[in-house]
Design brief:
Strand order of the largest sheet: 1-2-3-4-8
Oligomer: single chain
Strand content: 15-25%
Bound molecules: zinc ion
Number of helices: 7
Radius of gyration: 16 Å
Structural class: alpha/beta
Number of strands: 16
Number of domains: 1
Mean pLDDT: 96
Distance between the termini: 35 Å
Order of helices and strands: EEHEHHEHEEHEEEEEEEEEHEH
């Protein structure tokens, strides 16, 4: 599970996704590892309400460090509980891993206040501007964050993954909706894509989306 940290110097630090509840100490250690403190955090951006992406949010969020999510998933985050509503993503490996890692039980996590709700097209005043792209399908309120620098950097969350290759995620609430989201990402402009699970794609990333999930004619 990947957690990303944007360091804006005096303007603060932004976490993008925050791992499981048990990962809070490790994240703190990583922040101190670059000579900063958790109190330097100014923003927490969360792609979606799954325990491996927001489990530590309650630990780090505060009045001055709000957690930002799409309204649909923010509601789940505030409840601190998610019913398991996903089906395995396409492919044999996903169906095997899904059974091992996800199963059918609801998951709980420390409730997140998620003070800032965003929607598609919003631009966050963080690190020179980060655009919210609503990419539902993995969850209803899944968002990706497009940071418009260095040719564009997409924080893709779990819309896709890049673990054993660039592919579908382990599971989706609604695969057809996810496929629309994936095709839409291919029409955007970004060189780099980073994922909740797996390795980054460092060049021509939007073209890789477009090739794998072409837009309908
Ligand atoms: Zn997820």
């Amino acid at each position: 599970m990947n957690v990303y940290l944007i360091d804006e110097g005096d303007a603060g630090l932004t976490l993008v996704d925050v791992g499981f509840e048990k990962n809070a100490a490790k994240i703190t250690e990583a922040i101190r590892g670059i000579g900063r403190e958790p109190s330097d955090l100014t923003n927490i951006l969360i792609t979606h309400a799954h325990p491996d992406h927001l489990g530590s949010a309650a630990h780090f969020e505060s009045d001055t460090t709000p957690a930002t999510m799409h309204a649909i998933d923010a509601e789940i985050a505030r409840a601190g509980k998610i019913e398991q509503t996903m089906s395995p993503g396409p492919g044999l490996l996903n169906s095997i891993l899904f059974r091992i890692l996800i199963g059918s039980k609801p998951a709980t996590f420390p409730p997140v206040a998620a003070k800032i709700s965003v929607q598609d097209g919003d631009t966050l005043d963080i690190a020179g501007g980060i655009e919210v792209v609503h990419t539902p399908g993995h969850t209803g309120g899944h968002v990706s964050f497009l940071w418009k620098r260095d040719g564009g950097i997409l924080f893709a969350g779990d819309v896709a993954s890049n673990m054993t290759g660039f592919n579908y995620s382990l599971g989706y609430d609604d695969l057809a909706t996810a496929e629309n989201s994936l095709a839409r990402l291919g029409r955007l402009d970004f060189d780099t894509a980073v994922f909740g699970h797996g390795n980054p794609i460092m060049e021509n990333a939007a073209k890789r989306f477009a090739k794998k999930w072409p837009s309908p004619e």
